[in-house]
Amino acid sequence: MNAEWQMTNSGHGGNVHAWARAGGGSVDSVLDFSANINPLGLADSVQQAISQAINQVIHYPDAEAVLLKAAISSYYNVGVEAITAGNGAVELLYVLTHTLRPKRVLIPAPSFSEYQRAAKAAGAEVEYAYLSPANNFAVDIDAICDRLHHVDMVFIGNPNNPTGTLLPRGTLERLVSAAGQAGVLVVVDESFIDFISDGQAYTCRPLLKQYDNLVILHSLTKFYAIPGLRLGFALSHPQLASRLHAAKDPWNVNLIAQAAGVAALSDKCYQETSWRVVECEKRILYTGLQALAGFKPFLPSVNYILIDITATGQTAAKLRQTLAEQGILIRDCSNYPGLSPYYIRVAVKLHEQNKMLLKRLEQAVR
């Protein structure tokens, strides 16, 4: 593996292209556990919608994304006026911070690195609320509320990446309410909540009409396995949604992505099968990891598992390199603030793939 592959440790998972260039292989031959994508892959309905939309790429995409917003509105029971469509949720994260220009933001750590990058890119100072592995990385909402008086914006991942911690809506409402009184915006990232069959008990969407200081980020690329297309949306007070819409590229969501999103949200069979498969395989993989000497997995809520490998005596970087040479990618989490060099994250995939991962992990640390 060459220097380019080594450098990808500082970025995100899912960089199959760097792996292929480094080893001279094909992206089709890699088994990628480093990106948290639905293991069922592309739905037939979405593939068909993409094929049908190909001939329309001679036209500009709908700048208002009318059909996509209608599908989002219907599926998630939110008003169209609250929706800002995005080229992935991350694009809207940057649009949000550059539009509002917060001076200081508070971020639980570890959490998704783009919260920090987007805030700093907009000129904000970043403070961390560090989560403890001794407490299974639970988010202490009361402690965060105590720090609202000197920040402008708070980011909360629910479920949180990479820890998998999940907060009920009632707990988050306490934060949103307290933040509203302090004049603080709360950004709740629900990019993985679609993997929870009873996500209605956790989503903050019902709070949108009551709190104008709440923004919800949502990705459609993970659950519907379309990260290469990029598709997501933000939900907010209509006035803020109008500002975000005006601040972004007018054609930010391409025509094919819009068609794919409409098809995906109407595919109930794919959704139900995904919930069943991920829930089953998540339990099996977690149990298998618990049985491996030196591995301490944290109980997952969705389709990825954080693992402390300190007791194996290997660093995450070393284990990542060993598996990459065998065509298996895992996420080295050492670049997350709040994590040591001995944490990895793996996605939940299909049964035989998960068995292969367990076998290779056991061999690598034996």
Short structural summary:
This protein has 366 residues and is an alpha/beta fold.
Set out the fold topology:
Layout: H1 3-7, H2 16-23, E1 31-32, H3 44-53, H4 66-76, E2 83-86, H5 89-100, E3 104-109, H6 113-121, E4 125-130, H7 141-145, E5 153-157, H8 169-182, E6 185-189, E7 214-219, E8 232-235, H9 238-247, H10 255-265, H11 268-290, E9 296-297, E10 304-308, H12 316-324, E11 328-329, E12 331-332, E13 343-347, H13 351-365
Parallel strand pairs: 1-11, 3-4, 3-5, 5-6, 6-7
Antiparallel strand pairs: 2-8, 7-8, 9-10, 10-13, 12-13
Helix pairs in contact: 3-10, 4-10, 5-6, 11-13
Give your account of this protein's structure.
The chain has 366 residues and is of the alpha/beta class. The protein folds into two domains: 127 residues, Aspartate Aminotransferase, domain 1 (Alpha-Beta Complex), CATH 3.90.1150; 222 residues, 3-Layer(aba) Sandwich (Aspartate Aminotransferase, domain 2). The chain has a seven-stranded mixed β-sheet, sandwiched between helices. Strand 9 and strand 10 form a beta hairpin. The longest helix is centred in the last third of the chain and has 23 residues. It starts with a helix and ends with a helix. The mean pLDDT is 95.
State the fourth-level CATH superfamily of the largest domain: Type I PLP-dependent aspartate aminotransferase-like (Major domain)
User: How much helix, percentage-wise, in residues?
Assistant: 25-40%
At CATH level 3, the topology of the largest domain is Aspartate Aminotransferase, domain 2
Q: What string, H for helix and E for strand, traces the elements in order?
A: HHEHHEHEHEHEHEEEHHHEEHEEEH
Unreliable runs:
none
